[in-house]
Write a structure and sequence with these properties.
The chain has 317 residues and is mainly beta. The protein has two helices and 22 strands. The protein has helices spanning 2-17, 47-57; strands at residues 61-62, 68-70, 74-80, 85-86, 88-98, 104-105, 108-119, 124-126, 135-136, 145-151, 159-169, 172-181, 183-184, 193-198, 201-207, 216-226, 243-249, 262-266, 272-278, 283-291, 297-300, 312-316. Strands 14, 15, 16, 17, 18, 19, 20, 21 and 22 form a nine-stranded antiparallel sheet that branches. Strands 1, 2, 3, 5, 6, 9 and 10 form a seven-stranded antiparallel sheet that branches. Helix 1 (2-17) crosses helix 2 (47-57). It starts with a helix and ends with a strand.
Length: 317
């Protein structure tokens, strides 16, 4: 009985919030709760699940140019943290709804992200690092899919970006082939993506959400991607295994370092994780030494005239 009451309350809340549903920027429609059931309909969320999706969507911003309609029946919405893109790592979130009533749909798949840059003056095209998959990332929000794109450069006179994806909603295919997007430069004191070469191969190290960091110890997460041939094919996570040693310094404070930093190592999900200790606010330059599976330094770790690595990331907190 208590379970039913909780679901009834969630349904009432969602109906009350319908006027400010996530669809507001793409054709506002009321949310129709699929009955007071524990499991929900086959293509819809239960009331409790729908409420969790609604709450999550209040923390992100819609990207209208990447939102679309499938077969006149379903709407697919794309979101990022602030509704825009910047160089380096960007999370992308997707939600599908029934067009007639706005119900969230669990049974949909994003099959691939297709970023492409046209280098106008050089008359060439290239892609950029992307997540291996776009998939459900939280059991309480089964109707939200997440992936990421790490842009190697920003939009400028030299080049412009498009981004597309394929989607299947309840067995119906659709998507966006190539929408024009703008990739902004990061502010001064922020460098979240760096490339390095090992032999003839080029790799990209993408730092995940350093704006979430605070003073003290932080879990540092990154991805290592491998440039594809041809270069227009999105760059997936590298299969090779590296260890990435880190040496954080403050260039504006005499290059002092900090204790208790832990190298990044590859995790089961393909990401790299370690610990960085940022003892005060300001600009930090995180010097890197990349080692292969045998422990050989293959990138960075070189001693410049100032004694630090030429391969580094920059974060300002």
């Amino acid at each position: 009985m208590k379970k039913v009451m909780r679901l009834f309350f969630a349904a009432a809340v969602l109906v009350g919030l319908a006027s400010c549903n996530s669809n507001d920027d793409f054709g506002s429609q009321a949310i129709e709760i699929p009955g007071i059931t524990i499991d929900g309909d086959i293509d819809c969320c239960s009331a409790e699940e729908a409420l969790q999706v609604y709450k999550f969507l209040q923390t992100v911003k819609i990207i209208p140019e990447l939102s679309t309609t499938i077969d006149g029946k379903y709407d697919v919405f794309a979101y990022s943290r602030n509704g825009s893109f910047h160089t380096g790592y960007n999370e992308l979130f997707f939600v599908a709804t029934k067009k007639k009533n706005g119900n969230y749909i669990k049974n949909f798949d994003i099959n691939g992200l297709k970023p492409l840059m046209l280098m106008v003056k050089m008359n060439m095209k290239h892609s950029t690092p992307v997540s291996a998959n776009v998939e459900t990332f939280d059991k309480s929000r089964l109707a939200v899919k997440r992936g990421w794109v790490s842009f190697v450069m920003n939009t400028s006179e030299a080049g412009s970006w498009t981004l597309g994806y394929d989607v299947n909603v309840l067995g119906i295919n659709g998507g966006i082939e190539a929408a024009d997007i703008t990739v902004n430069a990061l502010p001064e004191g922020q460098q979240w993506l760096k490339s390095f070469k090992v032999g003839d191969n080029t790799y990209y190290l993408s730092l995940v959400n350093p704006t979430d960091w605070q003073t003290g110890k932080n879990t540092i997460t990154a991805y290592v991607s491998k440039k594809n041939t041809p270069a227009t094919t999105p760059y997936g996570p590298a299969q090779e295994q590296f260890t990435i040693e880190i040496d954080p310094r403050m260039p504006d404070m005499g290059n002092h370092t900090s204790p208790d930093n832990v190298a990044l190592t590859k995790q089961a999900d393909g990401s790299y994780q370690g610990t960085v200790n940022l003892t005060m606010t300001g600009r930090w330059r995180i010097h890197l030494a990349v080692k292969d599976a045998q422990g050989n330094v293959v990138a960075g770790g070189d001693d410049l005239t100032d004694g630090y690595s030429s391969l580094y990331l920059e974060v300002t907190i």
